[in-house]
Structure formats: C-alpha cells, structure tokens
Amino acid sequence: MSIRAIARELGISRNTVRSHLKAKSEKPQYLPRPASSSLLDEYRDYISKRIS
C-alpha cells in the first residue's frame, strides 16, 4: 500500500505517515476522519425533483 493511500485512508498527512514508517514503531492509532456532509445535502430533494 502506498504512503498516499495510507494517508488518505487514515485521514492524516503523508508526512505523518512517512515519519511513522521511518520511526519503525507500532502502527499509529489514528481514527479515520468522520464523513462530512455536503453543502448540497440540504437541497438534494429539490434538485432531484427539478431534474426528473
């Protein structure tokens, strides 16, 4: 798995992943970022009705 993929999955920077890999310590205990809502969520029903 690439450094970029690890960083994306964990929601941390690539530099943080690199530093942990260089340190050869235990896996970092980061939790994935919570999914944020879209600005369009509020208007999703309206947009769907307008399109169909």
UniProtKB/TrEMBL annotation:
Boundaries of every HTH IS21-type domain copy: 1-51
PROSITE patterns on file: HTH_IS21
A Pfam family per the record: HTH_24
Protein name per its UniProtKB record: Winged helix-turn-helix transcriptional regulator
Taxonomic source organism: Dickeya undicola
